[in-house]
Design brief:
The protein is mostly helical. The chain has five helices and no strands. It comes from Granulicella mallensis.
């Protein structure tokens, strides 16, 4: 199981490093979006919001690849993945397979470090 966890963590990190870097370097050609997706991405581009999004992909991706602060990297990637899923579900369903794969990779990686998240799943706060 350790090997599976290692492979999954590295794949997840690689996906986010590649797509985070692509946001800055544009080495993967992508067709321009249409309709609502184009308006949404256009607003994010003009406002420079995408810079933050790409950094929030790149930095946790690197952390996953070097196996440092994995729970922090997963915590930072969680909302990014949710937004990617919502974008594809609501505006671009054709691109949904990769976000679903990334979600599975995230869940497997999070499961492998679940003890780091034990505190947030407590029903009651311990009294001091």
């Amino acid at each position: 199981m350790k090997i599976v966890n290692l492979i999954v963590r590295l794949l997840l990190g690689l996906v986010f490093v590649v797509f985070g870097l692509n946001g800055f370097l544009h080495f993967i050609p992508m067709p321009p979006p249409t309709g609502t997706a184009a308006q949404f991405l256009g607003a994010m581009f003009v406002s420079h919001y995408l810079v933050a999004v790409f950094l929030l992909q790149l930095i946790p991706g690197v952390l996953l690849l070097i196996n440092r602060f994995v729970p922090l990297a997963l915590t930072l990637l969680g909302p990014v993945i949710v937004n990617i899923l919502l974008f594809h579900i609501s505006m671009n369903p054709a691109g949904l397979p990769l976000p679903l794969l990334v979600t599975v990779l995230w869940l497997v990686t999070a499961w492998s470090v679940r003890s780091a998240f034990a505190g947030i799943f407590q029903q009651n706060v311990p009294e001091e």
